[in-house]
């Protein structure tokens, strides 16, 4: 399996730069005190569509020539990737067809429709999502944009860590959550290429710990019936993504549902920014293992801020 190269990541950054924000980096003296070290937050919750997913989706869609894009693009996603494909397709002037599970947050469904995409609802299983997406592609001739198992997605997501390390080159650690593994693999690859002394840590809910189990056993392992408040992480890690993670990631930490909620609340209260539960998983891992990060410089990618405000967990 071929991993994206540093030049792939640089090309992706050039390709997407006019469609995305180079998001700001924030700090919190309260969180620094809790951890006993310096913590920097790359705020992809301020990214277009409110999540880092805009990077990968834009890189895939803009890598096709205009004449190749005419039938539009299709994907299945519970939310942020769906919004990203819808927005990037709109930027490219073509149609997006999005399959969403029936348990997707309404705020995300509404946002996808707001970007002009055609939405198809399906049962909330990976099999049902894949099958419904296949039917949409057969009907429309649209090109599929996979949420994570694609070198162009990984190269696009990698640009967040690239910006981060260019602005904060002295990081001892970087932490991201892991679901399908596009951001996790992309960030780990970036560090491997440009900052090999920075250790990549991944964070995962205990209830959806397939990447953790796979990392420890060395082979892909699934989770039956995944359930977590971190709705963006309910997918199993991709094969290509896991191959990169195995090679470039230092460690994976798992956190409980209550730890996720507590971390989310802490960021809302202390930093005055909206982050979604999936983002809070990385913050929870930082706090749970603060002895590892004490006296160090740690970067966290806040992955998104798309929250159903009438269903907050606190």
From TrEMBL:
What is a GO molecular function of this protein? serine racemase activity
Which ranges carry the Tryptophan synthase beta chain-like PALP domain? 16-304
Cofactor(s) it depends on: pyridoxal 5'-phosphate
Q: Which GO terms describe its biological process?
A: D-serine biosynthetic process
* Keyword field contains Cytoplasm: no
Q: Which UniProt keywords apply?
A: Lyase, Pyridoxal phosphate
Is Lyase among this UniProt entry's keywords?
yes
InterPro entries with a match to the protein in the record: TrpB-like_PALP, TrpB-like_PALP_sf
The entry assigns this protein to a family as follows: Belongs to the serine/threonine dehydratase family.
User: What is the official name of this protein in its record?
Assistant: Threonine dehydratase
């Amino acid at each position: 399996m071929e991993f994206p190269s540093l030049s792939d990541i640089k090309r992706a950054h050039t390709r997407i730069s006019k469609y995305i924000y180079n998001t700001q980096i924030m700090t919190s003296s309260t969180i620094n005190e809790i951890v006993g070290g310096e913590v920097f937050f790359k705020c992809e919750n301020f990214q277009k569509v409110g999540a880092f997913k805009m990077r990968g989706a834009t890189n895939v869609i803009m890598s096709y020539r205009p004449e190749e894009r005419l039938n539009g693009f299709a994907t299945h996603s519970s939310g942020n990737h769906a919004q990203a494909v819808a927005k990037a397709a709109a930027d490219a002037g073509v149609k997006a067809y999005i399959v969403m599970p029936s348990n997707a947050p309404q705020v995300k469904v509404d946002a996808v429709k707001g970007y002009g995409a055609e939405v198809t609802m399906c049962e909330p299983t990976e099999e049902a999502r894949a099958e419904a997406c296949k039917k949409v592609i057969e009907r429309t001739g649209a090109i599929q944009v996979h949420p994570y198992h694609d070198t162009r997605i990984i190269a696009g997501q990698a640009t967040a860590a690239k910006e981060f390390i260019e602005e904060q080159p002295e990081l001892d650690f970087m932490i991201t959550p892991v679901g399908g593994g596009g951001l996790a693999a992309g960030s780990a690859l970036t560090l491997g290429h440009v900052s090999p002394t920075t250790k990549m840590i991944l964070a995962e809910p205990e209830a959806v710990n397939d990447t953790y189990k796979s990392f420890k056993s060395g082979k892909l392992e699934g989770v039956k019936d995944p359930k977590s408040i971190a709705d963006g992480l309910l997918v199993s890690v991709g094969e290509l993504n896991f191959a990169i993670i195995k090679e470039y990631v230092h460690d994976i930490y798992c956190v409980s549902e209550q730890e996720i909620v507590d971390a989310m609340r802490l960021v809302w209260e202390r930093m005055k920014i909206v982050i979604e539960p999936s983002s809070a998983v990385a913050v929870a891992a930082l706090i749970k293992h603060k002895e590892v990060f004490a006296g160090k410089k740690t970067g966290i990618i806040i992955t998104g801020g798309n929250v159903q405000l009438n269903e907050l967990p606190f």
